[in-house]
Amino acid sequence: MNPDAGGQAAVAKACSEELGVDITTQVLPQAAGEQRIQLARRLAAEDSAIDLMSIDPPYTAEFANAGYLAELPEDMQQRLRDQAFEGAAAAATWEDQLVVAPFWSNTQVLWYRKSVAQEAGLDMTQPVTWDQIIEAASTTGKKVAVQSNKYEGYAVWINALVAGAGGEIAENTEKGADATITVDSEAGHEAARVIEELAHSEAAPADLSVAQEGQAGATFGSDVGGFMVNWTYIWTNYDDSQPEVKDDLGFARYPRTVDGEDSRPPYGGIGIGVSAFSDHKEQAIEALECLTSPESQGVNADLTGNMPSSPAGYDYPALKETYPQELLDLFQESLEAAAPRTVSPYWSDISGALQSRFHPPSSVDDDTPDKAKKFITDVLHQKDLL
Asked: Which Pfam families does the record cross-reference, listed alphabetically (predicted)?
């Protein structure tokens, strides 16, 4: 399992008691890329010690295409599809087969300090653009916190910016390494423009080039906090440590890349897959239904702040006690509008090459999308190395 605040361990314990088995948990590394590497190495070696595993959505196609995931029964696939949000089911699908069970589905929203938005004269009841929040933060002496270290979180931001301008990083991904790389498009240039604008503005945090989720949260919680894009757990992030920040915490839909075009928030989450090399496939498949039931999703969300992958999971009573209904509604609206990262067995290479040419953010300019397209293409065709 990926690291969390105890949600998956609690669910495993409850399902162990319900099913009369012993589901134990082992924790993968913190970073998504390192999780992928550890799982891929063990599965490539046909390690039978893994029965069930948490898989980050961008790596689902890679694992399925490699034959690492056990096939789920057709009737179970249909039940899981019917249960899940459409985007969650799509992220769990490869070649028309649901290959993992959606467990939690995360999205990002725009978190803002209400006092800063008021001082800047921003009407947060209306959609706002990246240009607007960068200007608002600059004029009030505050910062816009994002994830832009050279890691998967930066690819998440770039993808959301491109999708928000109506584009995609790659198309025709069924062709594998011969996919059409489309980041050098009008949408890709709009994404580069936003990154360049923030990086060279007064709103850029000092740690912009190394910022991940935690650093963004720290910037937002500091005296220069103004605006931040980040995942759903932020709502409870400041409850105990900084109640004054929580009192000033507002939320709105993810910023628009282009004025007049609806934003496409990031999609993240976890699907749980059964190893093709497990010695206990039948038991693991049975456990999978319990582990990813709406109630289990609700338990996990309550403990971790990572939201359910199904509408029914949002009915878990404890969530309604912790989160305002309008925020739960925003999470679900954002999930329905979310743009997943390119579904491809080669996503790891695409993402690594994309990050390489877009990092550091201060180097991004109008030539960056073209450089990224060429480098991604060369990496996919083994003409260059990451």
From this structure: SBP_bac_1
Q: Does residue 185 share a domain with residue 328?
A: no
Residues 163 and 250 in one domain: yes
**Two structure tokens written together for 1:** 């399992």
The verdict on residue 181 lying in a domain is: yes
Say yes or no: 189 and 74 in one domain.
no
Rg (CA), the chain: 20
Let me know whether 116 and 211 are in one domain.
yes
What residue numbers bound the domain in which 72 lies? 7-106+268-337
The CATH number given to whatever domain includes residue 36 is 3.40.190.10
What distances in angstroms separate CA 159 from CA 86, 156, 359, one per listed residue?
A: 19, 5, 14
Q: What is the pLDDT along the chain (386 residues), one digit of tens a residue?
A: 999 999 999 999 999 999 999 999 999 999 889 999 999 999 999 999 999 999 999 999 999 999 999 999 999 999 999 999 988 999 999 999 999 999 999 999 999 999 999 999 999 999 999 999 999 999 999 999 999 999 999 999 999 999 999 999 999 998 999 999 999 999 999 999 999 999 999 999 999 999 999 999 999 999 999 999 999 999 999 999 999 999 999 999 999 999 999 999 999 999 999 999 999 999 999 999 999 999 999 999 999 999 999 999 999 999 999 999 999 999 999 999 999 999 999 999 999 999 999 999 999 999 999 999 999 999 999 999 99
Answer whether 64's CB lies under 8 Å from 94's CB.
yes
Same-domain check for residues 36 and 163: no
Residues whose CB falls within 8 Å of the CB of residue 303, separated by 6 or more in sequence, listed in order: 4, 5, 6, 7, 10
Biggest distance spanned by C-alpha atoms of the chain: 61
Q: Domain count for the chain, please give it.
A: 2
Question: What is the rounded end-to-end Cα distance, in angstroms, of the chain?
Answer: 27
Strands 267-274 and 101-113: antiparallel
Q: Which amino acid is at 33?
A: G
Q: Which residues contact 178 (CB under 8 A, 6 or more apart)?
A: 172, 380
Whether 13 and 162 share a structural domain: no
326 and 360 share one domain: no
Q: Are residues 183 and 325 in the same domain?
A: no
Angle between helices 368-380 and 186-199 (to 10 degrees): 120
